Amino acid sequence: MTVFIIRRLMQAAVVVFLMSLIVFFGVNVIGDPVDMLVNPEADQAEIERTIKALGLDQPIHIQYLHFLGGISEGDFGRSFIRGEPALKLIIQHMPATIELALVSLVISIALGIPLGLFAGIYPDNPISRAIMAGSILGFSLPTFWVGLMMIMLFAVWLGWLPSTGRGDTAVFLGIRSSLWTLDGLSHLFMPALNLALTNISLVIRLVRAGVREAMLQDYIKFARAKGLSANRVIGVHLLKNIMIPVVTVLGLEFGNLLAFSVVTETIFAWPGMGKLLIDSLLQLDRPVVVAYLMIIVLIFVVINLIVDIAYSLLDPRVRLKDQGT
Amino acid sequence: MSEQTLQETAEEPQAPIRVETPFRRFCSEFFESKIATVALVTLVAILSLALAAPWITPQNPYDLAQVSVLDNLLEPGEKAFAGYTMLLGSDGSGRDLYSAILYGLRISIAVGLASGVIALMIGTAIGLTAAYSGGRLDTLIMRAVDLQLSFPAVLIALMLVAVLGRGIDKIIIALVVAQWAYYARTVRATALVESSKEYIEAARCLGLSHARVVFRHVLPNCLAPLIVIGTVQTASAIALESTLSFLGVGLRQTEPSLGVLISNGQEYIISGRYWISTFPGVALLITIVAINLVGDQLRDVLNPRLKK
Amino acid sequence: MLDRKKLMSALAATTLLASPVLAEDLTIGLSSEPTAMDPHFHNLGPNNAMSRHIFDRLINQNEKQQLNPGLAVSWGPIDDLTWEFKLREGVTFHDGSAFDADDIVCSFERAPNVPNSPSSFATYTKGKEVVKVDAFTVHIKTATPYPLMANDVSTIPIVSSETGCDATTEAFNNGPATVGTGPYKFVSYTPGDSIVLTANADYWGGAPAWDNVTFKPIKSGPARVAALLAGDVDMIEGVPTTDIETLKNNPDVALSQGVSNRVIYLHLDHDRADSPFVKANGGGAIENPLMDLRVRKAISMAIYRDAIVDRVMEGVAIKAGQLLPEGFFGVSDKLQPMDYDPAAAKALLAEAGVPDGFELTIHGPNDRYINDAKIAEAIGQMLTSIGIKTQVETMPRSVYFKRASRGGPNDTPEFSFILVGWGAGSGEASSPLKSLIATHTPDKGWGASNRGRYSNPKVDALITEALATVDDAKREALLAQATEIAIEDAAIIPLHYQVNTWATRTGLSYAARTDEYTLAFGVKKN
């Protein structure tokens, strides 16, 4: 097990290094930040001063080395437009996004698993068909459009929920979050649901597929034949087995959620990392974009590691195979 | 897939009243579901409409000589300056929405299909290679997949389009790069589970060639998840393209896909010009739902383990 | 639903009445967020607007960008090279410390020298030496006569010599250094979420109308409108043109509109005989017809500006015939928008030897100006209809401006025919003349945005003369004359002036500003 984890850790380190190369050079070919930053009335001297102030007068590989050197000291660079450390900006924006992603994940699971179980166990029930049709809708609607429709419906027409922004925050258990206030929750609901739409559908489909496969497998038939109650069969045997793909996929999706919040946060003016990213990208604030992407890579690599390890615990064959090679 | 069906027909021959071909069998099973039948008919109708667009629309929305800003923001049913009726109204630049939707369907479907098929082929090949070869190659490939997946599709596509520039070919490249890893990962995972099963070992013991084992036994078992992922990904390719347009890096404004039409229309939602984003949105929705329903039924029909 | 809201707010108001102090709060939805609270860090519209709440200038610009006394009560040249500023006495900073000439000297020193500044105020401070004469008199000296002194000075925020001048940008963002003399005091800055200010009851210009002001950045236009309709904010800036009609008919919303200092125009390649995006019919090479005045005139005549204003801008724009709308300093009263005349345009094309037109690509941004991509498309339609087969290519500004300025070989402009806008920050005509029309001369800082590389010695000479003329009337005439020559030569083709719209809840109104700034102290209760 230790060998397995060490191997995975080393692989993760290589991934992170490669990504830093791709991200840094990828981001640095897009556009020219100077034209975005300098006041249009500025003259050539001012433009050159800016280029120097931002370190853009250096060749790109030197810039990369500076960047690597900075990372080793925990410095991801300094925002071009805000002049503050990129990492600080991202950390400032992170709680809002994590809050959003977590709530959306909870919504996906809370809605997805029961609906998926139902649809899997009673595949021919009209309600199941409706659930499946609904899940297809969930995939089909473009997030930004649904977001706008939600704002129209819940905020403008019905006036039930606030249209945009993050609500009041409060400190509870040492964490400052808008989860602890009513105002905060009311602001959170629409964006979280918007972000969860795809994942609800995904969970429904995964659970249903898992259930339908499992129902035909021998161990379920045995369990039933043994006279175990339907609830026990579902609760213990079925759920346990279908949780493997659900955990894997949701683990992968958490990274995706963080990133997809780009769109949701833009529509709902949610002050999170995604909005920071898209703003930075549109304004070519390269250090923030690079730092953001690197952090997403790190988060993902860690999640992946955890999922891999969890997976190997649940299904020893995977671990054995990995070790055998 | 026909191989799979073939195999099964051979295994459990029925007493046919008329000659039972694999295709007929497949069809009869497919059309058992009314929803799927309707979806397939809808999909075929949409495809034909899209293909026939130049002959059944009053305006070529891509020809600036035929589009006039004086016709912009007409409500559904109003008459254009040139005399024809704008059935679904017009958008902010004066494009007839009915025409623009049909032309846009072509682009959206082409983008979705092309990127879906290419990503599926590349991803499957890579996933099978990884699963079947094992060892360092597997590790290497899976690390590459991780590398790829560590970047959410929307971000990869966003970056690529930003670097490559605009255009259908570039969007397709971006979508393929963004999506191949999903296929590879799925195929590998399924293939791994499959190859550890007894029947594969038995097949190997029988001395069957690697190719034969992969293509006749491992691959068919990957089909069900591949089809699920494939439909989902094709649908999401189309949605992703519209998201890129929303973020301002999608296809050209003058040659709008459905995604561009919707995102152009989103600024009019509050002002009550619902038609600009609603109709293309509905067209997009019907298309994707139809694709997904057909895919769903295909999965049920093709997955031998789900058969009674 | 709005009734429900009203009921709620009525209930809230009743409870508030019970409390001793009735706080008047204002929440504003911004379309773009300031990038820092440091007033000298980034010379950028949203930052300059925000800093005006907290920091005064020596001279303030009113909503028409006319100059009003700020921290200086009077000013003027005492000789060709020296301007004298008499400072306001008895003004205190938010922390209670007194304001005097030292604050001016150190603010002018800090403004161009903030570390890591992406766009500094050096443009306005360079060549100026600030000298303290006594505690309430300051002299600013230049090497050559400099008539735009007052305009330049009106852009520099004054920070406190005790807390602000040596402070880092972070110290401003966190609050301790954000101490000015302005009508509002800094409370908090949460990037991406909100900026909160509170009234400075001791403001020299009188206590402001609002006790607490919260700015919330909401980038998406529809979301901003939705936030106003839902009552989350009291006012929004940058109302999308598409929503103006709906909001006009909404009894809960009031609109405030005003023309801006921003002209939307077309720049054409005057310089290259073989221009990359101009082709003969069929795609072959052609000698750049845009260099022919008749072709440029034809293009201007083929543009149906009324249609752009009415249909694309939904009436919220004013068609343009020169660089700044009427009423601004240096505007010519002889220039009118070109009349739409496609027949005459075709005749001119024939006269210029291209009766069947040619192929052209118009490039434009799609996220910079109001409806920019749609304007580019409309231009494409209009030119195509007179035979100039036009392709439309729009892109995000992060890519566009670099390519438009320096995308070609040897840092030349990449495109041949572009849609751009220009806002005259100084509020007078020398700004667009110097940047857009004057010959591209990097050393002098002229023609920095002359992406068509127009060059006319006569215009250059007039601009040079104007910029050395301290006498206002003479300078105004020179600027108008330069504008006339450039426009008649179709150096650029003006399309329209942007009109900006603010929306408030009923009962409020905003004094629309030509500089597009959203200022809480411009919001009045009716």
Helix fraction of chain B by DSSP (H/I, runs of at least 4): 55-70%
**Overall pLDDT of chain C:** 89
Q: List low-pLDDT spans of chain C.
A: 1-21
Q: C-alpha Rg of chain B, in Å?
A: 23 Å
Task: Enumerate how many helices of chain C there are, as a single number.
Answer: 16
Assembly state of the chains shown:
heterotrimer
Report the principal-axis shape of chain C: globular
Proportion of beta-strand residues of chain B = under 5%
Secondary structure: elements and pairs:
The complex is a heterotrimer of chains A (325), B (308) and C (526).
Chain A lengths: L1 H26 L5 H5 L6 H10 L6 H13 L13 H36 L4 H15 L2 H15 L12 E3 L2 E3 L4 H34 L2 H8 L4 H39 L4 H10 L3 H29 L1 H9 L1
Antiparallel strand pairs in A: 1-2
Helix pairs in contact in A: 1-12, 5-6, 5-8, 5-10, 5-12, 6-8, 7-8, 7-10, 8-10, 9-10, 10-11, 10-12, 11-12, 12-13
Chain B lengths: L1 H10 L10 H9 L3 H18 L1 H4 L40 H37 L1 H15 L3 H12 L3 H28 L2 H8 L4 H37 L11 H9 L8 H28 L6
Helix pairs in contact in B: 1-2, 3-5, 3-12, 5-6, 5-8, 5-10, 5-11, 5-12, 6-8, 7-8, 8-10, 10-11, 10-12, 11-12
Chain C lengths: L1 H17 L6 E6 L14 H10 L4 E3 L5 E3 L2 E8 L2 E6 L13 H10 L11 H4 L3 E6 L2 E5 L7 H5 L15 H6 L9 E7 L3 E6 L12 E6 L3 H9 L5 E2 L4 H8 L4 E16 L9 E2 L13 H10 L2 H8 L4 E3 L22 H10 L7 E7 L6 H14 L3 E7 L1 H10 L10 E7 L6 H8 L19 H11 L4 H17 L3 E14 L2 E3 L12 E3 L1
Parallel strand pairs in C: 1-10, 1-11, 15-16
Antiparallel strand pairs in C: 2-3, 4-5, 5-7, 6-7, 8-9, 9-10, 11-18, 12-17, 12-18, 13-15, 14-18, 19-20
Helix pairs in contact in C: 9-11, 14-15, 15-16
What key attributes describe this structure?
heterotrimer; B: 308 residues; mainly alpha; disordered N terminus; C: 526 residues; alpha+beta; 9-stranded mixed β-sheet; 4-stranded antiparallel β-sheet; 16 helices; 20 strands; 30% helix; globular
Q: Could you describe the 3D structure shown?
A:
- The complex is a heterotrimer of chains A (325), B (308) and C (526).
- Chain A has helices spanning 2-27, 33-37, 44-53, 60-72, 86-121, 126-140, 143-157, 182-215, 218-225, 230-268, 273-282, 286-314, 316-324, and strands at residues 170-172, 175-177.
- With 325 residues, chain A is mainly α.
- The model of chain A has no long low-confidence stretch (mean pLDDT 79).
- In chain B, helix 5 runs parallel beside helix 12 (275-302), helix 6 (135-149) crosses helix 8 (168-195) and helix 10 (210-246) packs antiparallel against helix 12 (275-302).
- Chain B contains twelve helices and no strands.
- Chain B has 308 residues and is mainly α.
- Chain B has helices at residues 2-11, 22-30, 34-51, 53-56, 97-133, 135-149, 153-164, 168-195, 198-205, 210-246, 258-266, 275-302.
- Chain C is α+β, with helices and mostly antiparallel strands and 526 residues long.
- In chain C, the strands form five sheets. In chain C, strands 1, 8, 9, 10, 11, 12, 14, 17 and 18 form a nine-stranded mixed sheet that branches.
- Chain C starts with a helix and ends with a strand.
- Chains in contact: A-B, A-C, B-C.
- Chains B and C meet through loops of B and helix 7, helix 8, helix 10, helix 12 and strand 16 of C.
